[in-house]
Amino acid sequence: MARVIVMSEEQAPLPSEGASGYLTIDLAALARNYAKLSSILAPARAGAVVKADAYGLGAGRVAPALYRAGCRHFFVAQFAEAVRLRPLLAADAQVFVLNGLQPGNEGPCAEGGIIPVLNSLEQWRSWRATAKRLNRRLPAVLQFDTGMSRLGVSPEERGTLAVELAGKGNVEVLFIMSHLASADELDSDQNDDQLAQMQRIAEELPGLEICFANSGGILLGTSYHGVLARPGIALYGGTPTTPGANQMEAVVRLDVAVVQTRTVPAGAKVGYSGTHIADSETRLATIAAGYADGLPRSLSGRGAVYYRGTRLPIVGRVSMDSITVNITALPEGTLRLGSLVEVLGLHQTLEDVARDAGTISYEILTSLGDRYHRQYR
Ligand SMILES: *Cc1c(COP(=O)(O)O)cnc(C)c1O
């Protein structure tokens, strides 16, 4: 039976299917975030990082929405992600694999129209050999390690690569890139160091343009913009800099259903190991999401959910499938079986939950489980 649940006083009602939780992804807000980043970057362009299923929000819906918003450069981490994404986008969109070219993927990558980010001399040579074997011109991006020691051509390999690049080959290098390690810290010296490295590399390889900034990098200023940026978290409503006021619009909202309420006397133990003991008569609600749904166990006894702006503190341990919250602050009878409480939304941001859980918004987003009913707007 179709029922309508008012998700908050400020929002239009959404249809309910009796799900345990509702993950609402606002594709219009996503598009506005893309437009905002694009205007900060202009005349440089904004690509989009849609790895890890678009940070857990569903690359199959997110990437086409970003394409409609004007995005043409899509970055994933893994080859398999690119294979899934490629057919969902028009031919003028480019799909890049950040983790590089793994042995065995060369042929499928070339045939599938997927663009590898080449992270070493070995990968460059293997892609050049593939182009030769297929007698085709193949596009690629070159990534350089400028101080993160994670991915990219090392300083030692740069000289040899420059020599080989100058030789005639069938690989078309679209741009050079690197990744910032401390872009979330506005005044970290590491940003200046990496920028200086990147500029030196660009001088060594004349004619190649730069793709450098992630979300945080975009806010570091125009010297970091190159021709193309690679925002991820900012598109999805996260704060790229810490601490910092968030200029982006929230894209995700998470509402979870109450599955039981009860009143317990002073002295009652709550949850696994009885880590919480009620100090007075307390009204409790058990809500239908736990660490299997991406609400970290580190929220045990910390953090809260909200009901129409009222904070309902988490009490006791976070279980696999549920969390118990103290609802004494609400008038009796306010919450019933099936009522929805807000985990992410108007009153609690991704950053709030991440802070309470001792992690970052990226981890919260990418962990949100698949047991929620997902709805796109
Ligand atoms: C994940 C990633 C990004 C996006 O970073 P955000 O901080 O989410 O904007 C950009 N570039 C590379 C290489 C990445 O791995």
Can you characterise this structure?
Its cofactor is pyridoxal 5'-phosphate. Keywords: Isomerase, Pyridoxal phosphate. Catalyzes the interconversion of L-alanine and D-alanine. May also act on other amino acids. Its EC number is 5.1.1.1. The protein has two domains: 203 residues, Alpha-Beta Barrel (TIM Barrel), CATH 3.20.20.10; 125 residues, Lyase, Ornithine Decarboxylase, Chain A, domain 1, CATH 2.40.37.10. The two termini are 22 Å apart. 28% of the residues lie in helices and 23% in strands. The protein is built from eleven helices and 21 strands. Helix 5 links the parallel strand 7 and strand 8. The chain has 377 residues and is α/β, with parallel strands linked by helices. Helix 1 crosses helix 3. The structure holds pyridoxal-5'-phosphate (PLP). The site of pyridoxal-5'-phosphate has 12 residues, from helix 9.
